[in-house]
Write a structure and sequence with these properties.
Largest sheet: 4 strands, parallel
Oligomer: single chain
Strand order of the largest sheet: 2-1-3-6
Number of domains: 1
Structural class: alpha/beta
Helix content: 25-40%
CATH class: Alpha Beta
Number of helices: 3
Shape: globular
Distance between the termini: 27 Å
């Protein structure tokens, strides 16, 4: 699952996954949109740290607790301190 608010970034991440052979990619633009899918674990959740309705890190914790084996947090370069 790719959870990124910016549609351009979300699309780019999805395209890279497709290039790696991943075909069943779920996309979401917010935590609220992603949460209903947390109970159906996939191979990985890639989430932006800064989402419109909260932290992607919170979502990654939820996916881990629900049995998702992998999580990856994304952050734009200007987000780093």
């Amino acid at each position: 699952m790719v959870v990124v608010a910016d549609p351009r970034v979300r699309s780019t991440v999805t395209r890279h996954l497709w290039a790696l052979g991943v075909r069943d990619v779920i996309e979401a633009s917010s935590i609220a949109e992603a949460r209903p899918r947390v109970g159906n674990p996939r191979d990985i959740c890639i989430a932006d740290v800064h989402l419109p309705d909260g932290s992607g890190l919170t979502l990654l914790s939820e996916t881990r607790a629900a049995g998702w084996p992998n999580g990856l947090a994304l952050s734009a370069a200007d987000d780093i301190g």
